[in-house]
Amino acid sequence: MAASEGARLRTVIVPDAEDLARLVADRIVAVIRRATAERGRCVLGLAAGSTPLGIYEELIRRCQAGEVSFAKVATFNLDEYWPIAPDDPRSFRRAMWHQLFAQLDIPPKSVHVPAGDTPRDAVPAACAAYERAIRAAGGMDFQLLGIGRDGHIGFNEPGSAADSRTRLVTLDAITRRDAAAQFGDEASVPREAITIGVATILEAREIALLAMGERKAEIVRRAVEGEPAAEVTATFLQRHPNATAYLDRAAASRLTRMGGQPEG
Ligand code: GLP
What are the strands of the beta sheet with 2-3, ordered from one edge? Predict the structure, then answer.
């Protein structure tokens, strides 16, 4: 494990994806144990996308081995395409149930994903209700984040304000291009999405930003070393007292202060 010393965001660099999954799963299990022991419950903010899948596999393995229970855990996912049917295989809700929730001992009522089938005129009230539900649960103990190639966290696209809350957003061209494979082609990718806001994310007690692979290296450099700016919403994490970027070597390869040679 290595750390990038001059970074503006605390950075942990591991050799590969398996190490990353183990390390972050360890951290999540520790948070679940501590929060449930102290307060009788734990609230996790979770991300869809490919990056967390190894972590989710680790969590399932540990839950099924009896090492950790999700019976007292509540989850809130970051975002969802809009409009999309909840049972559409490309919806984040369906993907998360398939890849994680169905294999845990979590009560279904404790799982929250923004509803992609909310009628447009009901979206503002649904977004306000999502914020209230997070607050009523006690706020996020731990927030897991991926990063888009445009620097987004959740679907907080470039230009999103630091004080933004859960809302309907227009997706960026890069985001829609990157999602084209799942939807068959770019034209079929929804143009909008519901995302929790930057301010909502920053209220989490602990944040883990994950990135793997060379294709994320340039945006990771900007997120970790760049000036805080709304063009790269991940830079807002620099102001959080307990946020860490967990990177594999490829994603960390452009961090200038690493000299490109992280230790194993
Ligand atoms: C998606 C989601 C994010 C996700 C990010 C990275 O579009 N809105 O929540 O973290 O982009 O996705 P991936 O992990 O597949 O690279």
Answer: 2-3, 10-14, 243-248, 207-211, 142-145, 42-46, 73-77, 111-112
Instruction: Walk along the chain (264 residues) and give the pLDDT tens digit of each residue.
Output: 665 555 899 999 999 999 999 999 999 999 999 999 999 999 999 999 999 999 999 999 999 999 999 999 999 999 999 999 999 999 999 999 999 999 999 999 999 999 999 999 999 999 999 999 999 999 999 999 999 999 999 999 999 999 999 999 999 999 999 999 999 999 999 999 999 999 999 999 999 999 999 999 999 999 999 999 999 999 999 999 999 999 999 999 999 865 444 444
Domain span including residue 220: 10-248
Q: What is the CATH number of the domain that holds 94?
A: 3.40.50.1360
Please tell me the distance from the alpha carbon of residue 169 to that of residue 109, in angstroms, as a whole number.
26
Residue 220 in any domain: the answer is: yes
Q: For the chain, what is the domain count?
A: 1
Residues with CB under 6 A from ligand 1: 47-51, 78-79, 146, 148, 154-155, 175
User: Ligand 1 centre and the CA of 224: distance in Å?
Assistant: 17
Question: Whole-prediction pTM value?
Answer: 0.95
